[in-house]
Amino acid sequence: MQTKIIVLDDDPTGSQTVHSCLLLTRWDVGTLKLGLHDASPLMFVLTNTRGMSASEAADVTREVCENLKLALAGFDRPVIFVSRSDSTLRGHYPVETDVMAQELGPFDAHFLIPAFFEGGRFTLHGIHYVHIGGKDVPAHETEFAKDSVFGYQNSFMPKYVEEKTAGRIKADEVVRFPIEDVRTGTFDKLMTLADNACCVVDAENQDDLNRFADELLNAAEHGKRFLFRSAASLLTALAKLPPQPIPAERMREYVKPGHAGVVVVGSHVKKTTEQLSVLLKQDGIVPVEVDVNRLPEDLSALLVEVITKTTEAHLAGKTPVIYTSRVERQFPDINTRLRFGEQVSGFLMSVVHGLSTTIGYIISKGGITSNDMLSLGLAMPAARIVGQIHAGCSVVLTPHDHTRLPDIPVVIFPGNVGDENALAMVYQRLRT
């Protein structure tokens, strides 16, 4: 009997290594049942909690879990629960896994597995690395560790756990699965876990996680219940999907011939800014900058200006690139920063509502931007992912009966994925 993998995703980018499954932007019982009974072994519930405060993230996660328990009544297949989050260790850990353990447990263990190989993120000898500029850099030495909301000081995973749990789980209490064990067999060790033990796992490549996932599923069949806090590569290992229907280099087939697209860029990480710079130099591109310093006071006038420029570019057969100004503002506290981020994303979604109905595709750059694109800008309760157009960049299709933009591909492009040419490459692959 096929296991159903239920993923609570803190932004919509966790599907970046899989395909043919549903992304749910709502979590009422009816929508959750739609995902549970879909033929795919995977379903994603897009909670967008990375853009919330810790208390809001806990409330949303609890609501999803309560509705899941109702939706699962009478469901006769085994299930695995995953809290999918960032491969650079940002996000509300342990808030979300604590709530999931309370609502969906008891579990014998929860695992931290942040590996995302397509993005150059892996864990070895307990240390999580990010591949940057040709070098493997410990995650705590990267810009991601300096995040004003989710910053951290340790990339040795047991120490990271102790730091994030404020000492509730000590580093020496964390169960390690070193690379040697992963490659020789872990079943016996998995069967000894109990009382929601905290575990961290080495994984240097996809083969490591494929082997480990086989052992996990075997242990689950023998009665063990596990919870996962992971990035995308574990999902690849658990789901065991065949190749995607249309390969990345042929994704243009989803675009109506002769229809130009639109690019919406909200992410502010350094990598996004570098990619944006390359994209703006491509033929057929029209830059449309959103000066966020005018928000919220001058919102109405700014919205008219941006929609006018976007429409003019589209009528000329060009692809407008709508991007927020690149200088990140400083805020007195985390909540103020999060609220302003919501205002900016809300503005971008207002622009999406004003897009021409003849656009051929959308490229959405940034996790929170992409979540809002699907749930608010396009108002889709569910979307089916068809595959990746570039490593780590998923494509969903709007439904045939969408009121404004039917049957167009939408690229979910995480802020921290790809080299400086990746965004331009995705544009060229869709350009008709």
Structure write-up:
With 432 residues, the chain is of the alpha/beta class. It contains 13 helices and 18 strands. Strands 9-10-5-11-4-1-3-2-16-17-18-15-12-14-13 form a 15-stranded mixed sheet, sandwiched between helices. α2 packs parallel to α3 and α7 crosses α8. The N and C termini lie far apart (43 Å).
Number of helices: 13
Rg over CA atoms, rounded to whole Å, is 21 Å
- β-strand number: 18
Give the overall average pLDDT.
94
* Residue fraction in strands: 15-25%
Distance separating the two termini: 43 Å
Low-confidence stretches: none
Helix content: 25-40%
* Structural shape: globular
Q: Largest sheet, if any?
A: 15 strands, mixed
Strand order of the largest sheet: 9-10-5-11-4-1-3-2-16-17-18-15-12-14-13
List keywords for this structure.
single chain; globular; 21% strand; 15-stranded mixed beta sheet; alpha/beta; 432 residues; 13 helices
How would you summarize the topology of this molecule?
Blueprint (H helix, E strand, L loop, with lengths): L3 E6 L12 E3 L4 H8 L5 E5 L7 H18 L7 E6 L10 H10 L4 E5 L7 E4 L2 E6 L2 E4 L18 H8 L10 E3 L1 H6 L2 H5 L5 E5 L4 H16 L4 E5 L1 H8 L22 E4 L4 H10 L5 E6 L8 H17 L3 E6 L9 H20 L8 E4 L1 H11 L4 E9 L2 E5 L11 E5 L8 H9 L2
Parallel strand pairs: 1-3, 1-4, 2-3, 4-11, 5-10, 5-11, 9-10, 12-14, 12-15, 13-14, 15-18
Antiparallel strand pairs: 2-16, 6-7, 7-8, 16-17, 17-18
Helix pairs in contact: 1-2, 2-3, 7-8, 9-13, 11-12
